[in-house]
Amino acid sequence: MNNKIYIETYGCQMNVADSETVASILDVNNYKIASEINNADVIIINTCSVRDNAEKKIWSRLDFIKSIKRKNKNLIVGIIGCMAQRIGEKMLEHPIVDFVAGPDAYRYLPELISNSYLNNKFCNTDFNINETYSGILQKKKDNENMSGFIAITRGCNNFCSYCIVPYTRGRERSANYNDIINEVKKLQENKFKELTLLGQNVNSYYFEDNLNKVNFPSLIEMVAKNAPEMRIRFTTSHPKDLSDELIDVIARNKNICNHIHLPVQSGSNKILERMNRKYTREWYLNRINVIKSKIPDIGLSSDIFCGFSGETEEDFQQTLSLMEEVCYDMAFMFKYSERPGTYAAKSLIDDVPEDVKKERLNRMIHLQNKISLKKNKADIGKTFEVLVEGFSKRSKEMLFGRTEQNKVVVFPSLNKKQGDTVMITIKDASSATLKGEITNS
Ligand code: SAH
Ligand code: SF4
Ligand code: F3S
């Protein structure tokens, strides 16, 4: 039977969660997950479209898969995710692509696969505003029953002028809180240690029925109280929706991790306005100050990019100064990549030359490394609760895990294993990792 599926995932955590949803949908339809790409009957690539190089990676991956198909003529190849949605039917013109499915069409995958075996090439990129994949418990690879995701919102209504996501994921919708709590219970039954609530703009969650009106702060508190033994994380928050109520909920619930990923994108008001981010530098810094005052040991991270339309050296300097003022523990940094169909592609000139973008990105990374090193060094001597994720890449005698601030810590294993919670005292730090030892106290 041709039923072994290999799923490869690119892009954000939403895609990671979606791949698990897809695995689950296929599992109930009697497909099996292959752990090796070369043993697969069907290869599914879950794609990202956020920057041009994310798509380039997929095209070159398809060239590689062509060589596998040469050896296995019956191999089926499917493209799903954001690039599938953006490019649609045209992707079927690629010689090895058999089917295409957008983010709202995953329930049709068993059908798309059977049709591929009949040599019918189909593309389903219909949006479905009611699709939240509620009730489908994501399927984990073996030994990965530790960290779970629940996508509580899908889609995005913000239309930041540079961003492709509202076009690839459709309008924002929130899952029913009863379904979310049921999924939390299933993760609990399966002894998960950590749970991340996901959404492109997770803190704009809102669901109303006859009994309740549930916003994000009340949802996350409900989740935290239902699963007191689990660590609760959430991503990504939009600064415009980061309320005092949410900050208070994080501060008063011990099992909600003291970490906020709060993408700023730019430190210049002129650029923020062109980006349609709907907040100012001052609003953002005020949010950060309130967070720091109510949760002193908060871990802060961000997404920032340089070289957007109209960005002058002065605007860029304001981004650097904001980074210094906030003192992020970590940041994902990019250079602007124009995306077809967005407001910026239609109405704003991509006027920062490529070499200037590169040079600004380098300066930004250099600064963040310095800040991360300073923040990590300040942790030396402190003790953190760490959830063990696995062996360190470099040595089987070392384990790694994360603090609630989301910092990676490496330490000697001493018979501990994945899923254990240990107290670690930090002895050394680089800009990317903390090093420590288990403390008994
Ligand atoms: N929903 C999240 C992030 C979505 S995309 C949010 O609103 O913060 C992840 C990150 O990619 C963004 O935060 C942004 O920093 C970056 N990004 C998005 N579009 C981009 C583009 N066209 N060029 C460069 N970076 C981009
Ligand atoms: Fe993109 Fe903005 Fe939506 Fe984030 S909030 S996904 S950056 S449009
Ligand atoms: Fe990429 Fe889509 Fe996520 S464009 S960043 S995979 S929502």
Could you characterize what this model shows?
This protein is of the alpha/beta class and 441 residues long. It folds into 3 domains: 4-124, Methylthiotransferase, N-terminal domain (Rossmann fold); 147-377, tm_1862 like domain (pyruvate-formate lyase- activating enzyme), CATH 3.80.30.20; 383-438, Beta Barrel (OB fold (Dihydrolipoamide Acetyltransferase, E2P)), CATH 2.40.50. The chain contains 13 helices and 21 strands. Strands 2-1-3-4-5-6 form a 6-stranded parallel sheet, with helices on both faces. The chain has a 5-stranded mixed β-barrel with strand order 17-18-19-21-20. The chain has a 3-stranded parallel sheet with strand order 7-10-13, with helices on both faces. Helix 11 links the parallel strand 15 (299-306) and strand 16. Helix 11 (313-326) packs parallel to helix 13. It is globular, with a radius of gyration of 22 Å. The mean pLDDT is 95. The structure holds S-adenosyl-L-homocysteine (SAH), iron/sulfur cluster and FE3-S4 cluster.
Entry keywords:
441 residues; alpha/beta; Rossmann fold; pyruvate-formate lyase- activating enzyme; OB fold (Dihydrolipoamide Acetyltransferase, E2P); 6-stranded parallel sheet; 5-stranded mixed β-barrel; 13 helices; 21 strands; binds S-adenosyl-L-homocysteine; binds iron/sulfur cluster; binds FE3-S4 cluster
Strand content: 15-25%
Portion of residues within helices: 25-40%
CATH class designation of the largest domain: Alpha Beta
CATH architectural label of the largest domain: Alpha-Beta Horseshoe
Radius of gyration: 22 Å
Number of DSSP helical runs: 13
